[in-house]
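User: I'm putting together notes for a lab meeting next week and I want to include a structural view of one of the chains we've been expressing. I don't have a solved structure, so I'd like a prediction I can at least talk through. The sequence is below, exactly as it appears in our construct file.
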Amino acid sequence: MPNTLKLSDAISKETLRALQTPSNLRATYEICLTWGLIVGAFALAILWPNPLSWLAAVLILGGRQLALGVLVHDCAHHAMFTSDRINMWVGHWLCGGPMNVPAQGYRDYHLKHHKYAGTTDDPDRVFVAAYPVERDSLRRKLTRDITGRTGLRDTLYKLKTFKLSQNAPWLVFHVALLGTLWALGAPWAYALWWIAELTVYPLVMRVRQIGEHGLAQDRNHSDPRLNTGTTLANLFERILLAPHHVNYHLEHHMFASVPPYNLPKLHTILKDSGYYDGYDCITRGYANVLRGAIRPTAPAPA
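Assistant: Thanks for the context. Below is the predicted structure for the 302-residue chain, given as structure tokens.
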């Protein structure tokens, strides 16, 4: 039986205010972490060229491409740095640029998702409306992702809608990446970015989306505990599937102004207060997320 504890009783105004305070130092660390791993992935593939290092590099790059998208999201909420202007510049050039996602355009779109979450007007609802699905359906979706079909479709759409005034950071990034790798004598490594973006990135994006809203108990309810979910992730999952604490999506929907690096603390406070008691809104691990995304098979007739 869901509890009737009020959110205002689960966390004090003083505690919430402290969690909502951005830290430029912590935000800078988060940005440097993702870019450091991107550099490390290319270094691994170039310094020790072999199939295993290339596979590891592609996996790391795919996870970091997701991380860049998450950072665009956090900057678009003005929840990373203390300055809104810095949030939007970093989000547009350093995070959105490589993924061809203009920060302001993303902000305009994404705020509608928060405004209409729990209603049929949610623009992101289309990504998860079908879940749970048949096992074969999920397998087909994941196969399309990892074989590049989804990534190619999405890339062609981005190129079709490309506008230099909005998407210049994407062009600058790719010229800089290819130029740098060429100067290092390894222009072939440029292909690793595209392999990751066409295969690993769509796969981890789908799994992330399922974890956020695909297991919702009631997509037509305004309570985030019913229309959104949080996934408790291990270290490997945090690197590949849940960078920058994006797995604490339920907490983010309750308090979008809380910086991502403070979401684990917010989760602990709400959980320990009993605010989640009686609600099936927390999933342990992404393997369980995928299990939950599969529609139970009806028993065969006797």
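A couple of points you could mention at the meeting. The chain has a mean pLDDT of 95. The CA atoms of residues 128 and 214 lie 5 Å apart.

User: Perfect, that's what I needed.
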